[in-house]
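Lecture notes, continued. The same structure-token format from the folding unit now serves as the input rather than the output. Read the line below as a description of shape only.
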């Protein structure tokens, strides 16, 4: 199968307080429909790698290609549009706008993309909320939901533009065990039933064990590549 995401010879340095290499010659391919967990001790470089793959950090050596398009070298405006259309983000904290309703929060990336009418976007947003089991919360202010519900809304928002890939940075790191399991079940459903590609940084061994593949990092290197299925 043709890889959806290809990273070649990624090197990354931090320069404060002195020059330090964070990532060393990372090579990575992720096929469409795979759920990948990035694991390793704090400071090993896994979140840094995710930010390079997501194009939110462009200060690196090497190349990143997604969906057949070379992203390295594009300007910030081009990358912002590409991210909005092709990459969905789920972070440890949901970053919902508290003064907006749940439905409005989910619609925001699609309104920005302007591919559909507002009415169509609203219908699509309701579809995603239904998929995540929170459609009954659509008209509530986002800050009136529980933490688990808010994270499900954040996943719905990540899905609104039908991205090629979802990238998660500790998406269950702020959740209790019940809601962690809910999010994990959702990720498995997205990959197995809808062919969604997911890369997620996690410290949770149980979460990683239920993904399709675990990439273990240490000191800026990928040291393990374990297939779970």
């Amino acid at each position: 199968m043709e890889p959806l995401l290809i990273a070649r010879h990624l090197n990354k340095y931090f320069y404060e307080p002195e020059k330090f290499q964070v990532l060393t010659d990372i090579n990575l391919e992720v096929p469409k429909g795979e759920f990948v967990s990035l694991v390793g001790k704090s400071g090993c470089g896994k979140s840094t790698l995710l930010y390079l793959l997501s194009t939110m950090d462009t200060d690196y050596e090497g190349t990143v290609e997604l969906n057949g398009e070379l992203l390295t070298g594009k300007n910030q405006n081009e990358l912002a549009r590409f991210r909005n259309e092709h990459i969905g983000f789920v972070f440890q904290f949901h970053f919902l706008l508290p003064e907006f309703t749940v439905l409005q929060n989910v619609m925001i990336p699609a309104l920005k993309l302007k591919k559909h009418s507002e009415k169509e976007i609203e219908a699509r947003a309701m579809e995603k909320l239904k998929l995540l089991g929170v459609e009954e919360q659509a008209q509530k202010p986002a800050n009136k939901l529980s933490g688990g519900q808010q994270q499900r809304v954040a996943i719905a928002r990540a899905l609104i533009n039908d991205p090629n890939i979802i990238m998660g940075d500790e998406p269950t790191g702020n959740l209790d065990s019940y809601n962690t399991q809910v999010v994990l079940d959702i990720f498995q459903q997205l990959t197995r039933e809808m062919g969604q590609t997911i890369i997620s940084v996690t410290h949770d061994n149980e979460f990683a064990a239920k993904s399709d593949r675990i990439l273990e990092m240490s000191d800026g290197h990928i040291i393990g590549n374990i297939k779970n299925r």
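Point for the exam: The CA atoms of residues 70 and 172 lie 30 Å apart.
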